[in-house]
Amino acid sequence: MSAAQAASDDVLIARIAQGDRLAMQVLYGRHHVRVFRFGLRLVRNEQVAEDLISEVFLDVWRQAGKFEGRSAVSTWLLAITRFKALSAMRRRKDAELDDEAANAIEDTSDDPEVAVQKKDTSEALRKCLTSLSSEHREIVDLVYYHEKSVEEVAEIVGIPENTVKTRLFYARKKLADLLKAAGVERGWP
Amino acid sequence: MMATNKKMLEQEPGEIEALLPWHAAGTLNARDIRRVEEALARDPSLAKQYAAIQEEYAETIALNESLGAPSARAMAKLFAAIDAEPVRKPSASLRISTGIAEFFSGLSPRTLATAAAVGAVALLLQAGVIGAILSQGQPGSFQTASLSGPKDTVTRSLGSDGAPRAFVRFVPDARVSDIAAFLDANQASIVDSSAGGMFRVQFGDKPMSRQEVAGLMTRLQNEKIINLAAPAQ
Predict the structure, then answer these.
(1) Do B49 and A188 contact (CB within 8 A), yes or no?
(2) Domain regions of chain A by residue span
(3) Mean pLDDT rounded to a whole number for chain A
(4) Which of B59, B174, B200, B210 is such that its CA lies 20 to 30 A from the CA of A97?
């Protein structure tokens, strides 16, 4: 995100704190897709993820006056989303989530083994990324997709910066193990 | 247990190795970018790992992009909930801070740079004047805190002696060169800035009559690059 957009996000939050509905629409339009995708990758259910973004932005509406601008608005949004997602996940049984996991984000592609047979490493990689634990998924997404720095990830996840680095390293190791089990060798580790 | 710990330690990433994903995502600071690039250039195994990371990076983006977007139901639900919230009254401090933030976010980078540059020049000039005053009439190079001399205070010597000042707000798309030309043409200097994107500007170094000040204000109001001007102390 550019510095200009970050600055204008701050302006929107200040307006929202005054009850400006239009500013809320602009902020929603700007961030709702990324918030949705981050939430969906965690809760693995589109319906739940949609409910989640309503809750996240309603929190923004209520808490905008307390936003101190010490982090980027997008970082704040992702931190709220994570908190809401974890609460939603706790409300649901793990088994139920696991059952839904395959259906919710599943696309029409083959499983990793078949994909490899087709020499489609890309497809296998995506499957394995989906198979990571939620702890590993969130850190991979935050760094690669949401382009968050070490400091920002530490703030969103609530862990020390060194733990952020090692957790991503282990997530990548796990990804490599999954790929190896699926017959994909990438030369690392 | 010991064996497990040892195994974990062996698997810990190196300092540079741990930064590779952020390098791929382009979110490292300049210093770390340089460190990572130097390490990649001299370590083929690190470069190999980096190639794998770039694949992961690309596929993570592709995977997330394939997730689509939420339906309009989510937005409708949100705004229905917002409509049900109690109406809030904006606080005065919030209005002011929003105004300041909006003013600066509306300025072009060039205008912001000009304002900063003008401010810096004013500070340098001020420092220069203070230095000149302090050194005036002091033949020796060494001074003590109990230096006896003229009783004039530094601030009095720096004062405008009644030179007119005005609060001025420039239009958001004012160019650096326009502001510089305006200050030059009016023998003006920015004294300080205040809330709402206003600058306190001093004109010349001599007092003006009330009529002259009124004329100055009228002239300022007619300047294309100024959208607000008011007399200041």
Answers:
(1) yes
(2) 1-106, 108-189
(3) 86
(4) B59
Who has greater pLDDT, B186 or B130?
B186
Query: Using CB atoms and an 8 Å cut-off, which of residues 57-96 of chain B contact chain A?
Result: 57, 59-64, 66-67, 69-71, 73-75, 77-79, 81-82, 85, 87-91, 94-95
Domain formed by B107-132+159-232, architecture: 2-Layer Sandwich (3.30)
- Top-ranked range on mean pLDDT: pick from A5-9, A28-32, A87-91, B217-221: A28-32
Interval B204-230 mean pLDDT: 84
Domain range A1-106, CATH architecture: Orthogonal Bundle (1.10)
Specify the pLDDT at position B43: 94
pTM recorded for the entire structure: 0.60
User: Are A33 and B70 a contacting pair at CB < 8 A?
Assistant: yes
- The interface pTM score, or ipTM, of the predicted complex is 0.84
